[in-house]
UniProtKB/TrEMBL annotation:
SUPFAM superfamilies: HesB-like domain (SSF89360)
Native species: Albidovulum aquaemixtae
Chain ranges of the Core domain: 8-105
Name under which the protein is recorded: Iron-sulfur cluster insertion protein ErpA
Pfam families: Fe-S_biosyn
Segments traversing the membrane: none
Amino acid sequence: MELTLPPKVTPRAFARLAEINAATGDVKALRVAVEGGGCSGFQYDIRLDDPAPDDLVLEGDGQKVLVDSVSLPFLQNAVIDYTEELIGARFVVENPNATSSCGCGTSFSI
């Protein structure tokens, strides 16, 4: 898979990350990674983390979102967002590369 367009992060996702960092008093970046597993073959791992040397760093609103070099091809042209719904609030990935996904939205196939 050749990288054509890097992922994008919405202002809402950067704003929520800023709120989390302000509440904890510890400035961390949001890591979005792809790993094998889940009911569809791949799953997202979204967590607070520190940057690594090979990360793509996406910056906005004074915040950082990290994507490692292995996950990057799977996330090309994806949109990282934050959503609040009746079932809960969470960071989500809208991934145009996914050919199918599970109902919870954390597992997908390419």
